[in-house]
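Why run this: before we spend reagent on co-expression, it is cheaper to look at a predicted model of the complex and decide which construct boundaries make sense. The entries below are exactly what would go into the expression plan.
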Amino acid sequence: MNNAYDGLNEEHGDDARWAYGTGFADELSGVDRAFPSTVDKSDLAAYALMLGDDALVLAQRTSEWCSRAPELEEDVALANIALDLLGQARLLLTRAGEAGERPAEAPEHVPDEDALAYFRTAERFRNVRMVELANGDFADTIARLLLFSCQRLALFTRLSASADPVLAAVAAKGVKELAYHRDHAARWTMRLGDGTEESRRRMIAALDRVWPYLDELFTAHPVEQRLAAQGVAVDPADLRSEVDDVLDQVLVAATLTRPKAATAPGGGRDGSHTGVLAEMLSEMQVLARALPEATW
Amino acid sequence: MVTAREVVGTVTDPELPMLSLVDLGVVRDVRDEDGRVVVVITPTYSGCPALVEMREDLLNALRTNGFEDAEVRTVLSPAWTTDWMTEDGRRKLAEAGISPPGRIGPRPAGPVPLRLDPPAPRLACPRCGSADTEELSRFSATACKALHRCRSCREPFEYFKEI
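The model came back. Tokens follow.
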């Protein structure tokens, strides 16, 4: 065998191929997927892609902790959280594909969700910048998870009433998962913030680094505004006070104060990213691009 | 002759083999549509990797028992919660040393309240029965379980957490 990947390139039935290696041909198999009659499908596709990319990129980042977390239980916890996010991403990207999003570069046999994950370059990803930031130390990862999951839980709680039946179902399911993620991050923030001098110093530094990316999570894209007016999406600007309230509760419990941070540039929803996203994607996508016929 | 519903009732969960998919509450419906057996299932977690195997196991069991024309459909709504688990399922979990989930009821409307207090229900140790147990991690070897430990007999045990 010339290289370790050769064995992946054997003949298999189409059903055994792709979908992140699960052989799972259709993530929304059997789900009622009618489109609401009034909704603009390209807007719906763009919106599902935004939320799906947030979840996919954070799932990939979080899974980088596998075998590297500070203790075994935390390793397992972060892997579970990454798996939940990946599951949410798969459903959302499949919905985006159904509504018409699909990169032309992807080979025909590749399902939409895989085509979107593996065959787009960084500037075509629509995630907010916060989720792509490098993991940093454990406190950085916890700070990011806290901010993201607070916002995403508030969003999904409201999106459960979306006029799009798939978004509503995905959101209702994700609420219970995100509630666990948020509480987990909040408790670690307390342990670190109200812990030793060193853990407190690191937690403060971590919040200082991540906080500048918070504003982007509440900046509505025109797609979100149009769909929110139709009851399909949630305008993220409407979530701000609810999320601020939760974050303040956590900070008080952790004996921390809100960082006085300037806002970092955003633009992730329009494909403007920091350089680390391209680096992350090159690792995530290398196998799929090098061997598009691979199975595993 | 066995019915399709009886066949479905024999298929177990790939990660929790002491439970059938019916015990787990993953099977929502088994029905006949013009001679085709349709099984409706729902995932426990969005990213549950066992769903693909559940589907294969159901189709294999049905085929083996003469139901050649069978289809498995997935529904996402209403979302699965541990309240869908049957009493039989709870008993089988306890017998296997896994603490079963409590009843949670429907989620109240509005924002989900933040839970900062370390947890959760005080569980009885499934081995020695002691109530002196603690949570080690809210996440365990599968997404649906948490890891606890008995302070009396010192044994760790898993807990099928409520969601």
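DSSP finds nine helices and no strands in chain A. Residues 1-25 of chain A have pLDDT under 50 and may be disordered. Bring this page to Monday's planning discussion.
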